[in-house]
Specification:
This protein has about 160 residues and is of the alpha/beta class. It has 7 helices and 9 strands, in the order E-H-E-H-E-E-H-E-H-E-E-E-H-H-E-H. The structure holds flavin mononucleotide.
Length: about 160
């Protein structure tokens, strides 16, 4: 089994590397996996969430046997948030096993097209005013001010699954 990740600002990479350290599994970025990981290998995939889509997952699922999938997003880990991600990425209930992880956001690192996208998301959330629910109010605040929720304890459920699979 291998760990493969797709990360831009590094929060997803931190989770993937922490999990590699806990398990001794080989860990590669999706880019490096092209030469390091054979087709059809069993994989735990970590990908950052963008507009509910798990970055790199579409590509990775064509090539590898993804047994566990760890989307890393900024929003709170509520059932509704996880269901939106499952739906957007066309996941069914069995495989891969889904472990949502809360990442972080650094406004300083956010540039170019993604900065434009974030500004659109921020304007959209701001326009909802009083109608914003608790999840989106926190999301808005974290996009504006930055946040870091990466915590190795969040890997406990994944580790438990791995040790029993
Ligand atoms: C353009 C853009 C869209 C995003 N969309 C979402 C989203 O739909 N849901 C969410 O929880 N986080 C979203 N985020 C936040 C990222 O998922 C979060 O910052 C993640 O930890 C980044 O991982 P990385 O540091 O590995 O790149 C978005 C970030 C960007 C830049």
């Amino acid at each position: 089994m291998y760990i493969i990740y797709e990360s831009d600002s590094g929060f997803t990479k931190r989770y993937a590397e922490a999990f590699a350290q806990k398990t001794g599994l080989e860990c590669h970025s999706l880019y490096m996996a092209r030469i390091k990981v054979k087709k059809h290998s069993d994989v735990i995939f970590f990908g950052r969430v963008m507009q509910n889509e798990i970055d790199g997952f579409k590509k990775a699922r064509k090539k590898y046997n993804i047994l566990a999938l760890c989307p890393v997003g900024l929003r709170m880990p509520t059932n509704a948030v996880i269901e939106e991600i499952a739906e957007k990425n066309e996941l069914n209930e069995n495989l891969p096993k889904l472990f949502y992880l809360r990442g972080g956001f650094d406004p300083e690192q956010n540039q170019g097209l993604e900065k434009t996208l974030i500004n659109l998301i921020i304007s959209d959330l701001e326009s909802k005013g009083e109608d914003l629910n608790a999840v989106d109010a926190q999301y808005l605040s974290d996009l504006q001010n930055g946040a870091d929720y990466v915590n190795e304890e969040n890997l406990a459920a994944l580790l438990d699954w791995y040790e029993n699979c």
